[in-house]
Design a protein that fits this description.
Layout: H1 5-9, H2 17-23, H3 33-58, H4 64-82, H5 91-122, H6 128-135, E1 138-144, E2 155-161, E3 165-170, H7 179-193, E4 199-208, E5 211-220, H8 223-241, H9 259-263
Parallel strand pairs: 3-4
Antiparallel strand pairs: 1-2, 2-3, 4-5
């Protein structure tokens, strides 16, 4: 029995009853609109990074202006594919999400095009591979084997920067427990790389006036944070292994997929 990073680190359900209902009772409710929004926006960022790198490696773009042009051509196709999990949203919610997704695509394209031009100006002798990895220094959706930690064998890190800095993208409001995600990713990555991973970054994505607003919380993945993650992993593994219902939380988020099961209706 293994858990995902999300199951361990998430404390949207303070008691962990969501893990019990999913893993012991076998319930699989559809994702909430908040979860769908997160999936779509994560996909937009991933697709933007991959397509920008593809354009550079293939020779379709060799400057910021050319990269911007390629990304503009790809916007309709890539945003449409990113929106595929959102088909069941109400029309007005889908329209709002599509607008946010397009705005995010353009924002990411502009950031990478600008970074490319700065890199070309500062370091004109870089070879192609070094240029791409300097201008766009992220590996997105890195898959790690987490079984050494009792986790899934396909732990997906949102992004790695410079090989050993873990980044986790959050599209909702800030929560104190969100650094547990980077702690889990760091522990899993250390087991695979056999070396220290001590820096985490929680990247918060919001929108103001229809435009993306990005802020970052850079933190040390210290021993206290690691210990907190391991203790939470042990607690939730015990819930599943011993089939212990931890009971209802004092307060439940109204958009929790398990809310009808726990509270008998929708908030």
């Amino acid at each position: 029995m293994t858990l995902t990073i999300h199951e361990v680190a998430s404390q949207h359900c303070p008691t962990g009853r969501d893990v019990y209902l999913r893993r012991v009772e076998g319930l699989r409710p559809p994702p909430s609109p908040r979860m769908v929004r997160g999936l779509v926006l994560h996909s937009v960022v991933e697709r933007a990074v991959v397509e920008a790198k593809r354009a550079l490696y293939s020779g379709r773009a060799s400057s910021g202006a050319e990269l911007s042009g390629v990304m503009a051509e790809l916007e309709d196709r890539e945003v449409s594919q990113a929106l595929s999990p959102a088909g069941n949203l109400p029309p007005e919610s889908l329209t709002e999400l599509e607008s946010a997704a397009r705005s995010l695509w353009r924002f990411e394209a502009l950031q990478m095009a600008s970074s490319l031009d700065r890199t070309l100006a500062d370091r004109p002798r870089l070879g192609l591979d070094a240029l791409v990895n300097t201008a766009i220094p992220f590996v997105v959706e890195r898959v790690i084997d987490g079984t050494f930690l009792g986790l899934s064998d396909a732990v997906r890190v949102d992004a790695l920067a410079h090989s050993r800095v873990v980044l986790d993208l959050k599209t909702g409001r800030r929560r104190e427990f969100q650094t547990l995600y980077t702690a889990g990713y760091a522990l899993a990555l250390e087991a695979e790389l056999e070396g220290p991973v001590d820096v985490g970054v929680v990247v918060y994505l919001d929108f103001a006036g229809g435009r993306p607003v990005v802020s970052r919380e850079i933190h040390v993945v210290d021993e206290a944070l690691r210990r907190e993650f391991v203790e939470e992993r042990n607690r939730k593994m015990r819930i599943v292994a011993e089939e212990l219902d931890p009971g209802l939380a004092d307060r439940c988020p109204g958009d929790c997929p398990f809310y009808p099961e726990c509270r008998g209706g929708r908030a």
